[in-house]
Design a protein that fits this description.
Elements (H helix, E strand, L loop, with lengths): L2 H8 L3 H10 L2 H8 L6 H17 L5 H11 L16 H22 L4 H17 L6 E3 L3 E2 L2 H14 L8 H12 L9 H13 L5 H22 L3 H24 L3 H14 L4
Antiparallel strand pairs: 1-2
Helix pairs in contact: 1-4, 4-6, 5-6, 6-7, 6-8, 7-8, 7-9, 8-10, 10-12, 11-12, 11-13, 12-13
């Protein structure tokens, strides 16, 4: 599908757009094929924009949504060539997460997703967050944003906020966040805010804050243990930066929301302890 056809669809009225999509089923097949296109203009400004518009207008059928879920939640989407670095495969993983986040958010009203589909999305979203090695954010003017970690975090927030979310996945999600701290990369485009959005969403589910206190304590225990065993190497310093950025962001999230005083107090203690090297 060429750019001209996207613009043609955008210019239609809502009813005319619905009729056009119904009469031209290949349009959505092309949208699905272009989810991970390596050209930013086509991927972001046309393809993703069209999908979101059609989804918000309730134009997409249950069958179409299932087709997107069945493709994007598997090794053809979320975990496609996971582990690669500096390749264009990251765009498919990242935008599979972005498309699925929109679907999961909409499904709170639509209720199209089966339990099996939702579980697969959840498991592979956690896998993507834990195993993604291409941590680039903005790549270039031509290719645009990769931002797989950020988009996966957005998907996980949508999953947590969905009625089908199972609390048993909480430990896996927290472990996936912890894994990112030690990937030898300092996040620089507000990824720590995305991680804290996940934590905030989990807290809103009423999960006992003791679990999060234990998690925070384990994060800083590892920082101390690695420093003792291996010294202050480059990976340690990057992990310390990531960890403190998450802790500081989480502290202010909790402070401004005026919630979880005990957790906020523990986080504050660790920030004060680690803000300067001894």
């Amino acid at each position: 599908m060429y750019a001209e056809e996207y613009y043609q669809i955008f210019e239609l009225s809502i009813e005319a757009r619905k009729q056009y999509i119904e009469k031209h089923p290949l349009v959505m097949k092309h949208v699905l094929q272009n989810v991970g296109h390596d050209q930013a203009k086509l991927r972001d400004q046309l393809n993703y924009r069209l999908f979101i518009q059609l989804l918000s207008e309730n134009v997409l059928s249950k069958t179409t949504i299932h087709d997107f879920v069945d493709e994007l939640s598997t090794i053809k989407g979320l975990v496609f060539n996971i582990g690669e670095k500096q390749t264009n495969s990251v765009f498919l993983r990242s935008y599979a997460a972005l498309f699925l986040a929109a679907i999961v958010n909409a499904d709170r009203q639509l209720q199209y997703l089966t339990d099996e589909q939702f579980e697969l999305i959840t498991q592979n979203a956690i896998s993507l967050l834990a195993k993604e090695q291409d941590l680039r954010s903005f790549v270039s003017a031509e290719h645009g944003w990769a931002h797989s970690i950020a988009n996966c975090s957005e998907l996980l927030c949508a999953i947590i906020q969905h009625p089908k979310f199972q609390i048993r996945h909480t430990a896996q999600i927290l472990q996936a966040i912890r894994t990112n701290i030690w990937k030898g990369y300092v996040f620089q485009d507000d990824e720590e805010e995305r991680f804290c959005n996940i934590i905030e969403a989990l807290l809103s589910k009423g999960i006992d804050e003791e679990l999060f206190i234990e998690w925070i304590e384990q994060l800083f225990d590892r920082l101390q243990m690695v420093a003792y065993e291996q010294g202050y190497d480059a990976i340690w310093f990057k992990a310390r930066t990531n960890q403190l950025n998450i802790a500081k962001t989480l502290y202010f999230y909790l402070k401004f929301a005026n919630r979880n005083d005990k957790l906020r107090g523990i986080v504050s203690i660790f920030i004060q302890r680690w803000i300067k090297l001894n």
